[in-house]
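Hi,

I'm pasting everything inline rather than attaching a file, because the server keeps stripping attachments. The sequence lines come first, and each chain or strand is labelled.
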Amino acid sequence: MLAVVGTVPDPEFPLLAGKVTLENGNISIQGRSVAVNRGTPALLAAAAKVGEALGQEEPFGYLVGDIGRGEGSQQLYKYLAKHLSQTDFHIIAFHYIQPLIGWHNRILSVIEKMKKRPIFVADAGYMYVAKMSGRANAYDLFTPDVGELAFLADEVAPHPFYTRGFLLHEENHVPDLIARAYAHGNAPQYLLVKGRKDYLANKEGIQAIIDEPMEEAMEAIGGTGDTLTGIVAALSAAGMNIQEAAIVAARTNRLAGTYAHPTPATQVRDIIQYIPKALREILSGKHEEKHEQG
Amino acid sequence: MPLFQFLKRKGSNEAVEERADRGFLVFENTSEVIQAENLLKKKGWEIRVMGPPPEIRSGCDLVIEFPLIEELKIIKILQDAGIPPLQAVPVTSPLLQPVDLFQIRDFGRYLMVQAANMKLTVDKESLTIVNISGGGCPDVPYLAEQMVGKLLSEAPSPREIGHTLCGYALQLAYEEMRRRCSQS
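And the predicted assembly:
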């Protein structure tokens, strides 16, 4: 089973833990409905769509309201430190949350002591704090975009806001940034770098490049990275190994985008509805495999 | 390497990493440090006054250590109180500067400005904010909810309603977008 940890942009939203379902385009947890715009609700909606397509159970969510003050995040960290050890999730995806090193390290220590260690995925704020803490290599998968990859490659930056300019220049090739992130120990077992081309890499180098179908507008659409993380996490929960799940997820996310005929003004909820159709087609081999091997 | 040296090094690295989410606020004089300390403590932030590291060569003999992620909100509070810091820098690398490089993508009808990890896209015809993407701090979905669909001139600025360094990066993208749109 997949568990997802994150926040929703409503300061009044209480800490809730439970199965997440889809209802009229929104996600629902413990009877509360949350609009799907971007962030963790978009990740959960994409994961739920994958579960729907594969006949798998719904993802389990740990959600709390936080608009950047960090209070909700701290409440969630505290809850997880107390309860995670009693769970047996196959995979846990940590997402939008205030990056707080002390709490991150406590959660990591709880997970490392679990009898059966779950697959451990981080994106967004949790990926930042995992790198900031120097423990990126304790994780199985990060899903950065190219800007965030530059941050992972910068051994001194504590946050993407402080990434040094020479790493942000467009001429810096993604493969070089990936190699640098691994060289400094700031990358997990696998990196799935999302962008105009999606790259799957590990410490040996690039394992696959997925660049079709290509929709230029996707870069501008908030939440398309969140859906990618949701799809790969749900596929891993369904039993695929990370490498296969990442490649299928990248192709599915791109194809769902294409079906939405996106412009830079498209909203991610208009793409999420096409995930089951795209996934079924990718899995049935209707769209030939076109990724390059690294 | 002798065991005690290894342990010493490990302990020291861990201490540095534990502080990677902290920053230093540098002020002109100690009177401002005291005022800022009182104000921030009153508002509930975990801060402490200490001596500056050798890399910081400006300001007085005291600095305030603060939660770096919340730089945007803390600086706004200090500015509003008339005690803006000279500098805000990461504890682990005080010489680092905020990102000052913008990446621009022109989609024809739409223009996208990226600063660090944040992207802001505007419809050039109506000057409406149509999308915000990137980022990972919890104020990003909130900022997007408050800004997307509004005119660039009428949307609240990230500085007003944001809290974190992601919000700060979005503020830079927003300022650059306004500058570019005012020229066209």
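Residues 113 and 177 of chain B are 6 Å apart (CA to CA).

If the labels don't parse on your end, tell me and I'll reformat.
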